[in-house]
Amino acid sequence: MTGVVIVAHAPLASSLLSCATHIFGELPGVVAYDAQSDLDPDQLCREVLARIESAEGEGGVLVLTDVVGATPANQTGRAARAAARRGAAVTVLSGVNVPMLLRTLPYRHLSLDDLAQRALAGGTQGILRIDGEPEES
């Protein structure tokens, strides 16, 4: 089973995990890390690396982060590279949202690459304008 780590600006990561557990129940191998704004980037990297190591399953780890270019995503990238140097299979995707999680978590038995593709599809396909055409009166 592939592990999943959610890394985002506080309190988004734990909120996303809470939403997911509301829908799916207990999710072993899925952890959240809320990046505090005042945390030293090196410490953030170490803490994310620890979460990656704790979530690592047979299929590796898929890490979902919020905003590309922001400190949590940047330090997550560093942590993923450090984990990879230690032999872990890690993929990092940015732009985490609820549809991405819902398309990811039930399919953790898939390969890391297939799971990443499913997550990307869920994240992008879950963003739609739904107000449609104005209703006739």
Task: Indicate the topology.
Elements: E1 3-9, H1 12-24, E2 30-35, H2 41-55, E3 61-65, H3 71-85, E4 90-94, H4 98-104, H5 112-125
Parallel strand pairs: 1-2, 1-3, 3-4
Low-confidence stretches: none
Number of strands: 4
Please summarize the sheet with the most strands.
4 strands, parallel
| CATH superfamily (homologous) name | Phosphotransferase system, mannose-type IIA component
Total of helices: 5
Overall SS class: alpha/beta
How is the largest sheet built, in terms of strand order? 2-1-3-4
Regarding quaternary structure, what we see is single chain
Shape: globular
Helix content: 40-55%
Count of spatially separate domains: 1
Order of helices and strands: EHEHEHEHH
CATH topology: Rossmann fold
What is the CATH C-level name? Answer: Alpha Beta
Q: Between the first and last Cα atoms, what is the distance in angstroms?
A: 52 Å
Domain PTS EIIA type-4: 1-127
Protein name: PTS system mannose-specific EIIAB component
InterPro entries: Bacterial_PTS_sugar_comp, PTS_EIIA_man-typ, PTS_EIIA_man-typ_sf, PTS_IIA_man
Subcellular location: Cytoplasm
What does this structure look like?
The protein starts with a strand and ends in a 12-residue tail after the last helix. The longest helix has 15 residues, at 41-55. The chain is built from five helices and four strands. A four-stranded parallel sheet has the order 2-1-3-4, with helices on both faces. The protein has helices spanning 12-24, 41-55, 71-85, 98-104, 112-125, and strands spanning 3-9, 30-35, 61-65, 90-94. By secondary structure, it is α/β, with parallel strands linked by helices. It has a single domain (3-125), classed as Phosphotransferase system, mannose-type IIA component (Rossmann fold, 3-Layer(aba) Sandwich). 47% of the residues lie in helices and 17% in strands. Helix 4 packs antiparallel against helix 5 (112-125). Residues 1-127 form the PTS EIIA type-4 domain.
